[in-house]
């Protein structure tokens, strides 16, 4: 798998700090038998945690919305583009896992970049 | 009267008198909800009651013949009924249910239930030790949380008793009997004492009777707690038949613990799972179950917090804690489970809090709520998501402080008081029915959930056919072929409901063309009649019953109504009755009629039976739905079944009205008003109910 290019410090900071209340990603967690628990996401660490594979629940997110949010609101067009490609194949859970792998990679990059600054 | 203890305890709090009612008089209602409704009918002096905090409210805490037995997932539930606090626009006669070891202990003490009338002039608690019953002073317990209250009462009961080596003596008719069991206590906390709509009843660490505001009902009655200890047993009519059915349930229908099938479809066959709805705080945990349950869906942890909190309570604060934890799942878990403990201790209901708090957060970010704002609040809103915020928020709600004063009567009521009614109409405050928050099974997609709630009085919280959503959509999410195709699913479920669907499973079809049909009304009737008798009166647990299909079984048929392990097999084995499964449903129909008669006297008319406006005005689309598909069995124009999406639609007012007319006609109620008719009530042995409705000028007219 191609690695993502290292983010600029400003982008790294934005990804980690998160966005305003009204700009959050509308997402949730599907927890049987409770249903979908609305869990809006403001930052990349929150998103990474939401998408992390978990036997008890599934992420609840529209991939189009996710890609739009990462590219538009967070301003990470590279990550958005890679996720768009990655979720094209396979089932919904495969898509969540692929998105999670990319987001984990980006999160590690952002953390290391922020640590270096 | 096998299965039954034979007597019900009536406690009149006004006069502080105790009375014994023969269960035989109410036997046909089965137990639980049915008996609670019948007792309400007989004992409530003013059934126009609109607020459960009135002293004329009659609150029952009822077991069933199955409580205290080993009928799988039916031995330990307990039903609470009475006029509620918090629903909108009326505190309808309602119900709630909790598990643990209270109802089984009640049976062992020789009681089928307790019915509370009147209002004490100072705080009391009820002390039940077998036949020895007393009301005791609770002034020193008032203000205490639910856990401290339970602990103090246990100490009080045990301290006066003869005890040695872990055994203690409980008085019986002629002598004392020995037990190792501490009393089972059901208590209210500050949320109930202050008579807020959030008040619930709590037993143990986390068995909560949440909906309906029954904590406020007890608070208004000055009743702090009920403690029960019993040393008897439950007389089972045919123990061999009971054991046979239990073994069949285990061997034929249930999961094999040595070789679990994690992708199984059904209910009875689910692999037991005692995880909370956030990451477990530790691997060191012990499963905790209601009496006699094969499942055990709760846990106690070595870390000492989060014990027995499950489902919504173990999750209600997670979306807020996630912001603070910034991806640290264990931090989310700790904040959420500790906040669950706070909820349990204050005796507050977590169910509506999550949706309600989302709305409050919105108001804060809109600049409407906060210090010095239009809705003044000094809570630390910038710290929302922390444990400290949760503590202060719950304290405010439970003690009527800060915004808790305005929220004490309910969420929709507060929206109206604050001039934010439009938030409710538009779904910002997503409370689609009767002042209850949306449960994630939106009426626009999952029809039975919405309709069943609409024609009753509270979020139905009934997973009877909702399990189809889970099985189908999780399989599709994983890209798996559904283990039961849509046509077979419709057939299997249709066969279980044959009596109602008349051989036509089209009630399962939630496609656009069938949304308002008579067949969906037939399906909802089955669900409600099942719910009212088998689930809420016989007290089979909703997490396991009904069992409509089961992939463990070659034929895919579930245990429900089966001749080897159907509900009626267990019922008959315990009670010695000989009823069919359908006769149980018919009892459920009588109970629903009794409910409808009470609601009618409380002021209900079909014109009030409406969803919130957003259900009619806004499609259930991707801005409201997060899980991107909601597939359900539907038929195409050629009648071919497939799982298809039921998203992106709204309900039409005209369509829902049509559906209501179907439902009322099928129930034998007057479709113009929704009121029960004399002929229907008489056919169910409820002529006295018809007489009272007639006297009140609220008897439905017979259709020509
Ligand atoms: S499944 Fe859970 S809630 Fe239901 S009876 Fe068993 S332990 Fe209690």
Plain-language structure description:
The complex is a heterodimer of chains A (117) and B (704). Chain A is mainly alpha-helical and 117 residues long. Helix content of chain A is 54%, strand content 9%. Chain A has one domain (9-116). Chain A has a three-stranded antiparallel β-sheet, with no helix packed on it. In chain A, helix 1 (9-17) crosses helix 5, helix 2 (44-51) packs antiparallel against helix 5 and helix 3 runs antiparallel to helix 4 (77-86). By secondary structure, chain B is of the alpha+beta class. Chain B folds into three domains: 7-229, Aldehyde Ferredoxin Oxidoreductase,  A, domain 1 (4-Layer Sandwich), CATH 3.60.9.10; 274-419, Aldehyde Ferredoxin Oxidoreductase Protein, subunit A, domain 2, CATH 1.10.569; 447-545 and 580-670, Aldehyde Ferredoxin Oxidoreductase Protein, subunit A, domain 3. Chain B contains 24 helices and 21 strands. In chain B, the strands form six sheets. Chain B has a six-stranded mixed β-sheet with strand order 2-1-6-3-4-5, with helices on both faces. Chain B has a six-stranded mixed β-sheet with strand order 8-7-15-12-13-14. In chain B, strand 1 and strand 2 (17-22) form a beta hairpin. The radius of gyration of chain B is 24 Å and the shape is globular. The interface between A and B is large, with 42 and 41 residues. Bound molecules: iron/sulfur cluster.
How do you describe this structure in short?
The complex is a heterodimer of chains A (117) and B (704). With 117 residues, chain A is mainly alpha-helical. Chain A is built from five helices and three strands, in the order H-E-E-H-E-H-H-H.
């Amino acid at each position: 798998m191609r690695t993502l290019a290292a983010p600029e410090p400003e982008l790294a900071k934005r990804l980690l700090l998160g966005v305003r209340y009204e700009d959050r990603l509308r997402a949730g967690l599907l927890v049987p038998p409770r249903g979908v628990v609305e869990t809006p996401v403001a930052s990349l660490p929150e998103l990474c945690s939401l998408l992390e594979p978990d036997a008890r629940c599934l992420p609840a997110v529209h991939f189009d919305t996710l890609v739009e949010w990462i590219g538009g609101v967070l301003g990470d067009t590279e990550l958005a583009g890679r996720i768009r490609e990655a979720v094209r194949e396979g089932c919904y859970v495969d898509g969540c896992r692929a998105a999670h792998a990319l987001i984990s990679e980006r999160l590690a990059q952002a953390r290391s970049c922020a640590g270096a600054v | 009267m096998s299965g039954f203890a034979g007597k019900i305890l009536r406690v009149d709090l006004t006069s502080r008198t105790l009375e014994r009612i023969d269960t035989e008089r109410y036997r046909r209602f089965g137990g639980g909800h049915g008996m609670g409704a019948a007792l309400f009918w007989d004992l409530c002096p003013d059934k126009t009651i609109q607020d459960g905090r009135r002293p004329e409210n009659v609150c029952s805490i009822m077991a069933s013949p199955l409580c205290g037995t080993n009928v799988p997932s039916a031995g330990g539930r307990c039903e609470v009924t009475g006029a509620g606090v918090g629903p909108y626009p009326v505190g309808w006669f309602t119900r709630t249910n909790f598990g643990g070891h209270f109802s089984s202990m009640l049976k062992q003490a020789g009681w089928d239930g307790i019915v509370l009338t009147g209002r004490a002039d100072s705080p009391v608690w009820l002390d039940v030790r077998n036949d020895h019953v007393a009301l005791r002073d609770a002034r020193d317990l008032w203000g205490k949380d639910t856990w401290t209250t339970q602990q103090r009462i246990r100490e009080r009961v045990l301290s006066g008793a003869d005890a040695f080596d872990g055994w203690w003596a409980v008085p019986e008719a002629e002598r004392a009997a020995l037990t190792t069991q501490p009393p089972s206590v059901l208590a209210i906390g500050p949320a109930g004492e202050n008579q807020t709509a959030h008040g619930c009843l709590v037993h143990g660490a986390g068995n909560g009777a949440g909906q309906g505001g029954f904590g406020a009902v007890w608070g208004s009655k000055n009743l702090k707690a009920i403690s029960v200890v019993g040393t008897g047993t439950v007389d089972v009519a045919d123990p061999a038949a009971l054991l046979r059915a239990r073994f069949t349930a285990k061997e034929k229908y249930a999961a094999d613990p040595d070789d679990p099938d994690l992708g199984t479809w059904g209910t009875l066959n689910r692999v037991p799972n005692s995880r909370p709805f956030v990451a477990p705080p530790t691997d060191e945990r012990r499963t905790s179950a209601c009496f006699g349950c094969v499942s055990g869906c709760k846990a106690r942890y070595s870390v000492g917090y989060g014990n027995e909190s499950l489902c919504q309570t173990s999750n209600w604060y997670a979306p807020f804690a996630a912001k603070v934890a910034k991806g640290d799942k264990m931090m989310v878990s700790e904040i959420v489970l500790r906040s669950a403990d706070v909820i349990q201790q204050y005796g507050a209901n977590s169910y509506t809090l999550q949706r309600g708090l989302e709305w409050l957060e919105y108001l804060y970010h809109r600049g409407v709520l906060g210090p010095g704002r239009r809705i003044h609040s000094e809570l630390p809103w910038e710290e929302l998501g922390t444990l400290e915020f949760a503590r202060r928020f719950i304290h405010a709600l439970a003690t009527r402080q800060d915004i808790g004063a305005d929220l004490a009567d309910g969420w929709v009521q507060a929206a109206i008081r604050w001039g934010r009614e439009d938030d409710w109409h538009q779904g910002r405050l997503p409370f689609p029915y009767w002042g209850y928050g949306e449960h994630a099974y939106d009426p626009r997609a999952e029809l039975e959930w919405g309709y069943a709630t609409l024609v009753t009085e509270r979020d139905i919280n009934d997973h009877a056919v909702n399990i189809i959503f889970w099985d189908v959509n999780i399989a599709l999410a994983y890209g798996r072929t559904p283990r039961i195709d849509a046509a077979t699913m419709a057939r299997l479920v249709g066969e279980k409901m044959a009596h109602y669907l008349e051989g036509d499973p089209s009630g399962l079809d939630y496609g656009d063309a069938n949304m308002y049909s008579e067949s969906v009304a037939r399906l909802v009737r089955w669900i409600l009649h099942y719910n009212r008798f088998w689930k809420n009166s016989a007290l089979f647990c909703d997490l396991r019953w009904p069992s409509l299909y089961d992939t463990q079984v070659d034929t895919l048929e579930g245990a429900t109504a089966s001749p080897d392990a159907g509900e009626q097999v267990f019922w008959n084995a315990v009670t010695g009755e000989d009823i069919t499964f359908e006769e149980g449903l018919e009892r459920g129909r009588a109970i629903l009629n009794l409910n409808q008669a009470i609601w009618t006297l409380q002021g209900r008319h079909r014109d009030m039976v409406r969803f919130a406006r957003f259900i009619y005005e806004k499609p259930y689309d991707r801005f409201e739905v997060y899980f991107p598909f909601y597939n359900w069995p539907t038929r195409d124009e050629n009648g071919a079944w497939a799982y298809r999406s039921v998203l992106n639609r709204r309900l039409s007012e005209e369509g829902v009205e049509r559906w209501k007319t179907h439902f009322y006609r099928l129930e034998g109620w007057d479709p113009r008003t929704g009121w029960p008719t004399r002929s229907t009530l008489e056919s169910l042995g409820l002529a006295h109910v018809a007489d009272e409705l007639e006297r009140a000028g609220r008897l439905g007219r017979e259709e020509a």
